[in-house]
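anyone seen this seq b4? input:
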Amino acid sequence: MRADGRFFGALALCWIAAASDAHAYCRTTTCDSLDPAREGVPCETDARGCVVEGIPLWRDPGCVTLWLSEEPEPLPGIDTAQLAELTLAAFETWQDASCDPGQPSFEARLNGTLECALTSFDPGALQEVDSVRVVREDWPHPQSLRDVALTTVNFRPSTGEIIGASIEINAEDNRFSLTPDSGAIDLPSALAHEAGHALGLGHSDDRDATMFPRTPAGSDALRTLSSDDEAGICDVYPATQDAAGACADTPAASASSVCEGAIVPRRASHGGCSAAPPGGASAGWAAACVLALIGCARARRRRA
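predicted toks r here
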């Protein structure tokens, strides 16, 4: 996501998606065009550019536990408490979608802050954690220097099960606002779009959708789901069970236990660095560029 006062849109090399012909939304899949094992062969796409190769990503229905990085002031004029409320509200926007009847079969909860998710944060070391952090200096993705945010989804390549995701907000190159401002990014809109990626959705062709890749600068239109967004999230999480109370029934982990569990040995994989997730489960990850103005993000694949 980039801002220059005109648009944010996504023009990504890494959009991995599969779509239902009846809808405009795309599903993210396990196919990764930048996986070295593919030797440069792109993932198969349909006429709309949605990837139809690979297994659609999904989460085990239940509680999605969110963590924030521990920051004294995440964004100018937006403190940690506000960022926490906005992050949870973004996921609750998807949680409250209408699946006619019922709602998507997941519930979101904010657990607290993680000191280990500061500037030394490594998505590979926290593969089974859902986190949001603000990057105020040294944006770590040189291929997308002016992107507003980047969502990295960790998944099991054999099944497509999402085991964690990290949302990184680029505050080094962008200004954010909580009210419509032609010179700033609408933070609630950006978080709602990012939450959709963290839950397994790709982009949508519907111009009214939260997952549509372009919106006028300063617009708050992405805060509200369209019928296409609701169809997409209900496709991933059918209302086959009542998720209400799922988080109440899920014990809350402590920040210290999460950070301690994230310190794992690295080892080379596919010519790069990788980390074994807690428990030694095999995992891959794909990075999706979000709301980028004529920008893109890289997609890589890790296997423990």
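The first helix runs from residue 80 to 95. The domain at 7-248+270-290 is CATH 3.40.390.10 (Collagenase (Catalytic Domain)). kinda curious what u guys think
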